[in-house]
Amino acid sequence: MAAKVPYFTSGSLRCLRPRANIHLYEVPRTPFISPKYSQRPHAYSTSPPNSSPRNKPNYKVAILCGLTAVAATWAVTTREPKRLDASPSTGRPPLTSGVKVEITGKDNGDNVEEVATGTSTIPHFPRTIWLPKSGGRDEGRSAALPAGMGAAQDEDEYQLLGLGIRKVSLFRIQVYVVGLYVAKADMGKLQEELIKASVGGGASTLVQGEKEQLQKTLLDGKGSTEVWEEVLKEGGVRSAVRIVPTRNTNFSHLRDGWLRGIDLRARGKEFEGDDFKAAVGEFKSILGGRGSVAKGKVLLLGRGLDGALRAWVEEEASSSAGADPAILSTKGEKMTLLGGLKDERISRLVWMGYLAGDHIASEEARESVVRGVMEIVERPIGTVETQVI
């Protein structure tokens, strides 16, 4: 069968002829793309991804985020706290009028020996303080304190046993520095009670193994509760808790912390009566509605021979006519008596909040106090030295 020959017309042949006015141009090629700048492979691709600038970490953004977090933390930790659960202010001034005394350093002079606290905000605590001497069963009454301090003023010397910083929240925010002081004349009594609680009566000192056991007991939640409960209930040891805030706070904030500790530890028939409820109410009234406590101001809680409680606060320099602010820091702290109460259970539970149990105000303070106790019990009764920290 003969092959078919394509049929061309004259018009068709004309289109195949080259024309002189037709110019051919080279088609531009797609530029070569280096693998360095190639696109990201598909999510299901098995080939490894190529490194590109977009995959490199952005250090500038990371640094900016870090600085923002630091600034936010600083703003939270430095602003003045506001307690939503605190009782409303009664309109009373921050420092109410009361009996004014002077809590002085050692020798009532300028050369006050100091102990480092571990924080730059409140760098030092005095090793020795002097509190007004008061008598026995009347220690909780304001009238037991004279109107002022003079040459004839009787005082008792108190020695620092241990100190630490109270910290709260996960950020370990510093709230205040707390120190426990014991009357110098009662150091022997404290030593006797601790040895008695450790190995029983009859012993005059503790040997190395007994010391180690006592130290372990005082750092244990249950063991420390048993020892300090016995020592504080026995009485006969005057002591004081000195508190200096590291940031602005208020009386309601401090009071609520102590009340939570009292409620946590007030268990048993001893604390079920109406008289105990009345004592708690009296404690609330001493510290309630008194306004703010500025950073660096001193708050003192004293415990007498029979457990009676007294509370003082450092007065403002402007509240004393003609007072030189330098005198407050070099020769003593002008203190105002806030009040007192005689029920020893209140002071005992407040002290236990710093010394005993699983949940205490400052573990650092408890450890420091235990180290001071170890210095006491290793010496024979009656020969204890007062400088223990």
TrEMBL record:
Query: Residue spans with biased composition (Low complexity)?
Result: 45-57
Q: Name one Pfam family in it.
A: Chalcone_2
Instruction: Indicate the segments forming the Chalcone isomerase domain, all copies.
Output: 156-370
Matches recorded under InterPro entries? Chalcone_isomerase (IPR016087), Chalcone_isomerase_3-sand (IPR016088), Chalcone_isomerase_sf (IPR036298)
* Top-level taxon of origin: Eukaryota
GO MF term list: intramolecular lyase activity
Tell me the segments the record calls region Disordered. Answer: 36-57
Which named protein is this?
Answer: Chalcone isomerase domain-containing protein
